[in-house]
Specification:
There is one protein chain. By secondary structure, the protein is mainly alpha-helical. Helices cover 80% and strands 0% of the residues. The protein has 21 helices and no strands.
Length: 425
C-alpha cells in the first residue's frame, strides 16, 4: 500500500477524480489499521482535490472535511478538528437544499469534540440542537445518536435525572430504529448503565452493563475495544458500589486482553489500567496501585497529545495516594505535572484543574509552605465552589480550604465554605 501511495505521487495527475477516489480509499485503510500519521496527509490531499474539482462548499468537499476533522480528533488535535467541524457545519447550513441529516451530524461531531476538551456545557447545546433538528425532520438514526450523546453529557454535568430519562428513551428508540441485537443497542445500554451507576442504582446498572457486554461480544467480538471498554466501565461501577474484588477482576481482564490485542502501550490499555489501579488502591494494595498508576501516566505521556486532559488523570490519583501516605513532596511533584497539563488542555477555571490546584495546595500545606498553598487553594475554591461536577473531589477540596482558613482565623471564609458543603450534602 505504501508503494501504491508513492506511485500515486506522480501518477493520475491528469485524472483528479480517480486520484481522489483512490487516495480516499487508501486513507480509509490506514485509518482502519490505526495508522493515523499515514492517513492524515492523504485525507488532506483528498479534501484539496475535491475542493478544486467540485467547489469549496460542495458536498464532496464537506464530506472530505468531516473525515479529516475526525482524523485530527483521533490524533488528539482537537482545535484543528473543531475548526473543520465548524466549517463543515457552516457550509452545510448554507447549502441549498439544506441536508438536515448532514447538519445534525455536524452538530453531533462538534459536541463530541468539545467533550474531548471537557467542555460539556457547550457540547450539550450542540447535541440538543441535533436532537431538535432530527425530531423536526424525522431523522431516526441521527435522533438516536444525538439523544445518547445528550444523556452521556448530562451525566458528566451532574444532571442525573435528565440523563436517566434521555438514556432510557435512547434504549427504546435504538431498539426500534436499529434493532435489539445490534452494537448500537449495546452502546445505548452502556450509556443507561453508566447513568444508573452514577445514581447508585447498582443492580439495574449491572443488568444493563451485562446486556451491553453480551451484545458487543456477539456483534463485534469479545476482544473488541468497545467490548473491553464496557468491561472497564462495569469495573468502575463495582468501584462505586464498593465491590472492589469484582472491579479488579473486570478491569484486570480488560487490561490483559487489551495488552495482547492492542499492545501494552496503547492509550486504551492506559484507560483500562487507570480503573484497575483504582481497584488495587481500594483493595489496600497501595504499592501495586502506585506502580500501575505510574505505568498509566507513562502510557499517556507517550501516546496522548499535550491537548488531552486525560494525561493528568493518573497523576491526580497518584497525588491522592502520596498525600494519604504522608509523602507531600512526591504529591507536589505529580500535582505540579498535572497542573501543567490541565492549564494547556482545559479552559481557565475548569473543575478538574481545581482538583489539581487543591492537591497542590494540600501538598504545600503539609510542607509548611502556607503562602504558596493559599494561592492554589484559592484557585481551587474559585473553580469548585459553584460546580456540580466531581462531588467527592469538591467536598475534599472545599474541606481542605476550610481547614486552612480556620487555622489562619479567617472565620468569614470558613463559614462560606462550610455553608457550601452543607448545601451540597
Amino acid at each position: 500500500m505504501d508503494l501504491g501511495v508513492e506511485h500515486l505521487a506522480t501518477a493520475l495527475q491528469d485524472q483528479p477524480e480517480v486520484r481522489a477516489s483512490i487516495l480516499a480509499a487508501i486513507a480509509k485503510v490506514y485509518q482502519d489499521l490505526d495508522m493515523m500519521d499515514e492517513a492524515l496527509p492523504l485525507s488532506r490531499e483528498v479534501l484539496a482535490l475535491n475542493q478544486a474539482l467540485y467547489g469549496q462548499a460542495s458536498r464532496q468537499a464537506r464530506d472530505s472535511m468531516g473525515i479529516l476533522a475526525r482524523l485530527h480528533g483521533v490524533r488528539g488535535e482537537y482545535d484543528d478538528a473543531g475548526d473543520l467541524h465548524r466549517r463543515r457545519l457552516d457550509l452545510a447550513r448554507m447549502a441549498r437544499p439544506v441536508d438536515a441529516a448532514e447538519v445534525a451530524d455536524a452538530e453531533i461531531r462538534i459536541g463530541r469534540n468539545l467533550l474531548n476538551t471537557s467542555e460539556a456545557q457547550a457540547a450539550e447545546e450542540h447535541f440538543l440542537a441535533a436532537v431538535d433538528l432530527a425530531e423536526a425532520n424525522g431523522l431516526a438514526r441521527e435522533h438516536v445518536d444525538a439523544l445518547r450523546s445528550v444523556a452521556d453529557t448530562q451525566r458528566q454535568l451532574g444532571k442525573l435525572e435528565e440523563s436517566e430519562r434521555n438514556a432510557r428513551r435512547t434504549v427504546e428508540l435504538t431498539d426500534l430504529v436499529r434493532g435489539e441485537n445490534t452494537a448500537a443497542a449495546a452502546f445505548a445500554r452502556g450509556t443507561l448503565a453508566s447513568t444508573l451507576s452514577s445514581l447508585r442504582k447498582y443492580d439495574e446498572a449491572e443488568t444493563y452493563f451485562r446486556q451491553a457486554i453480551d451484545l458487543l461480544s456477539e456483534t463485534l467480538g469479545p476482544e473488541h475495544g468497545n467490548t473491553l471498554t464496557t468491561h472497564s466501565n462495569l469495573a468502575r461501577m463495582y468501584l462505586n458500589s464498593g465491590d472492589f474484588e469484582a472491579a479488579a477482576e473486570q478491569a484486570g481482564m480488560a487490561v490483559k486482553i487489551g495488552e495482547r490485542t492492542l499492545g501494552p502501550s496503547h492509550p486504551a490499555v492506559g484507560r483500562y489500567l487507570q480503573n484497575y489501579s483504582k481497584a488495587l488502591e481500594s483493595l489496600g494494595r497501595t504499592a501495586e496501585a502506585v506502580a500501575a498508576f505510574e505505568r498509566t501516566a507513562q502510557i499517556f505521556r507517550d501516546t496522548l497529545p499535550l491537548s488531552s486532559y486525560q494525561r493528568a488523570t493518573p497523576l491526580l490519583s497518584l497525588s491522592g495516594i502520596h498525600l494519604a501516605q504522608n509523602r507531600p513532596v512526591r504529591a507536589e511533584a505529580v500535582a505540579s505535572e498535572a497542573l501543567e497539563i490541565l492549564t494547556v488542555a482545559l479552559p481557565e477555571g475548569h473543575a478538574i484543574t481545581g482538583v489539581a490546584d487543591c492537591r497542590m495546595g494540600r501538598s504545600l500545606m503539609a510542607q509548611g509552605r502556607l503562602e504558596e498553598a493559599e494561592f492554589h487553594l484559592q484557585r481551587s475554591t474559585e473553580s469548585l465552589l459553584d460546580s456540580n461536577s466531581f462531588p467527592a473531589y469538591r467536598e475534599e477540596c472545599l474541606t481542605a480550604a476550610a481547614e486552612f482558613h480556620r487555622a489562619r482565623g479567617s472565620d468569614e471564609t470558613v463559614n462560606r465554605l462550610e455553608a457550601a458543603l452543607s448545601a451540597t450534602n
